[in-house]
Amino acid sequence: MVLRVDPQDTIAAIATPYGESGIGIVRISGPEAAPIAENIFRPRRGAPQLCSHQIRYGEVIDPKGGETIDEVLLTFMAAPRTYTRQDIVEISCHGGFWPLKRILELVLRQGAREALPGEFTKRAFLSGRIDLTQAEAVLDIIQARTDEGLRLAEEQLRGGLTKEIAGLRERLVGLLVPIEAFIDFSEEEEDKPPLGAVTAGLRGALATIERLIAAHEEGEPYRDGVRAAIVGKANAGKSSLLNRLLERERAIVTAIPGTTTDVIEEALNLSGVLIRLMDMAGLREPRNEVEQEGVRLARERLAESHLIILVMDRSRPLDEEDRAIFRAVAARGKPVVPVLNKVDIPPYLAETALIRETGWSHPYPISALTGEGIEEMKRGMVQAIIAGRLKQGEGELIPVNLRHKLVLERARDVLDKILVNRQQEELPWDLTAIEIRRALAILGEIVGETTPEEVLDTIFSQFCIGK
Ligand code: GDP
Q1: Which residues, judged by CB distance below 6 Å to any ligand atom, belong to the binding site of ligand 1?
Q2: Which atom of ligand 1 is closest in space to residue 257's alpha carbon?
Q3: Which residues contact 343 (CB under 8 A, 6 or more apart)?
Q4: pTM surpassing 0.85?
């Protein structure tokens, strides 16, 4: 929808959130931005003409009746040194619904059109100021839920992925040159492209693509949060711990074993990492249909989790159910945060016996009931995440979202097929060239050069109006 509107008309929108605030901004972009602003703006001092990249103080006036709407600061930025590469005017007025609404209405009455969601950023993309990965990064920055998510989005905005894709495409173009020269100018045997070098080049490109696909998985905890599963036998205190970590009542806490039959998920921000906590039904054998569903879901979530919080009840002896859970957890080979709950009541389990039995050193003694030991346990969670290489991995993390990953997989399949067919001597050089060009076009979708319009529409429609 957004693409099919004229990118040359003048658009306007409120660029700040609705609600009461110190200031609010109405943004205008397009060739009519300056004349529209001059019609409704009266500077306190100086000539009415606007100068580029200067802030003016004055009032917004309704040109019809001369009524003053608000006291404002007005910034005019002439093309092309602007976000959209068009003329832009930003009117900073008092925050709050009415001043913003009335100024926007005035601007629209002067001939501007109300911007669609993401249309300013779309213009930045269409004008070539940013590529598609950077436009997506703008969206990620707006929607970032943690410091780490923000850091990754900012890396993308700086062009982290763009550089990788450019390098990859350069390498493929380098392979194409001798192949196309041979097809176009020569039929001589000795001018044949060097098969070994082409194969090695394709393998190198494939390795880069595989590394980028893997980067998608690595970045997942930053984008979508670390999935932490809280497991332990019924009544160990999982729901109480979840509530304690979240500091509010979410899961229903009861003394009847097996009440958490569903998986409850809540988000927690720990040192800038989003942790998605999942309270699981016990991993024991289900006794009825409702439990069966809960247990199935719990096993699935355990497989998907990045981190396991294992809750043990220190006031009771270990039993077979505990041991079955230990085995299930150990089998996953994921970072584990072992906790010994209920330290506020007399212990039954000795820590040393437990360490001997499970092999997990340093369990965190806590009381989900009183809150004792919870802060140390939270620090332990962050450390386990770091130790699990979820954080501070080797080298800089390259931001690869799901869309990028799916495109990369398609490019990988094309290159894979060329290699297989060439090995079987079935692929003539002209077809090899066509296939390499196809891979290049697919990779172009990532940065937005060859992206289908529907995909662009979907991406920009996720933005808010005014961005
Ligand atoms: P879940 O089945 O593992 O989710 O366990 P719950 O969180 O429902 O807790 C089971 C029972 O243990 C409830 O009666 C809780 O009040 C109690 N409980 C949980 N944590 C503690 C704790 O640290 N100390 C004590 N004394 N009781 C606790």
Answers
A1: 232, 234-240, 253-255, 260, 341-342, 344-345, 367-369
A2: 2
A3: 314, 365, 366, 367, 372, 373
A4: no
